[in-house]
Amino acid sequence: MATMTAKSTEEYSLAQRVAMGDARAFEAMMRCYNQRLYRAARSILKDGDEAQEAVQEAYWKAYRAMGQFRADASLSTWLTRIVINEALMRLRHARRRDNVIQLGIDLDVARSQNVIHAGIDVSENPDQLAWRSELRRLIEHQVDRLPKPYLIVFVLRAVEDMSSVDVAEVLDIPEATVRTRYFRARALLRDALGREIEACGREVFSFAGQRCDQIVTTVLARIATRRDP
Known about the structure:
Blueprint: H1 6-19, H2 23-45, H3 48-65, H4 75-101, H5 107-112, H6 126-144, H7 148-159, H8 164-171, H9 175-193, H10 196-200, H11 209-225
C-alpha cells in the first residue's frame, strides 16, 4: 500500500472497522457518502427510487468487499465506482427487459416529466417557494437532457464538487476527457437556463433526510439478516 495521508489513514481505519462488523462505523460511513452516491446513481438512472435501490445494493456489495479496501484510492472514489457500476448494470437490465416486453413506451419522455421534490425552507414566502420550485424543476429537467457522457461528469463535478482527477479515476477515463465533457455540459446548460444554473446548480437532485434514513435502515437491516436479495 502506498504512503497514506492522514485522511486516507482515517478512511482505511473506518473501512477496517466496517470489515470487522462494526455496524455504527458502517452507519457513519453511509450517512457521510449517501448524498454523493445517490446523486451519481440518479444521474445515470434518472429515477429517484431506482437510484435509492442502486445505492442500497452498492452498499451491500461494498460491505461484503470492505476487507479488500486498501486506500489506494479515496473511500468516496471506491464507493462511487461501485454505485456507478451498479447503476449501469441496472440500466442495461432495464433496457433488455423493455426490449423483450416491447411496450412501445418512450421511457425517456416519461422520465423527463418526473419532478423530484426537495426539502423546502418554510420561512420563505409563497412566491419565493414557487419560484425556487419551478427553477429547480427546470434545472433538473435540463440536466436530465444532457447526453449521458456529459451527465454523469456534470453531476460528479458540479453537484458533488469532485475534482477532475477523482472523476477520471471513478469513470476510468482521461482527466482531459473529464474537463472537456464538463465544460461542454456547462455550455449546454447555459444555453438552456442562463446564469441561474451557477447560483442554483447545487440544489439539483436534492437529497432529503428521509431518503438518507431509508437507505441506512434498509442496508443495516439486510446486514442484520446476512442475506442476499
